[in-house]
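Can you please make up a protein's amino acid sequence together with its fold in token form to help me picture the idea?
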Amino acid sequence: MATHAQPSSRQDWRTLLRAKGYRLTPQRELVLRAVDRLGHATPDEVLAAVHQESEAVNISTVYRTLELLEELGLVRHAHLHDRAPTYHTTATPAHVHLVCRGCGSVVEADPKVVEEFTDRLRDTHGFGTDVGHLTVFGTCASCGA
């Protein structure tokens, strides 16, 4: 699994982008701030948040920006629903996503909760698990009651 820097401030974002030959353009900064603010968000949700600050950004710019930011390790995606991928910042620690099929709530769980499972996959199948993309669907305590 690739290891990425985990910038948490605008200065860190600028430094990482410059080191890779990119600039922190206003559009990139708007997208990064939206992902930071929203937690887990689809590209459409990111666009809606960006539009609160600027109408000058369109959906194709959001998709291109999210793709670039993921390549640079500033955001990552997971599949939390049967729709578009959901993006979140890498400034937060790696986590497993627990998604309730009843209410749609998303819980971020420490990767240690699946460590025995991922260790077994590695030992039995030689398979290294990218825990940050791992999403477990089920029913939360509230919906199960």
In short: The helical segments are 10-19, 26-38, 43-51, 59-71, 115-125, 141-144. The chain is about 40% helix and 15% strand.
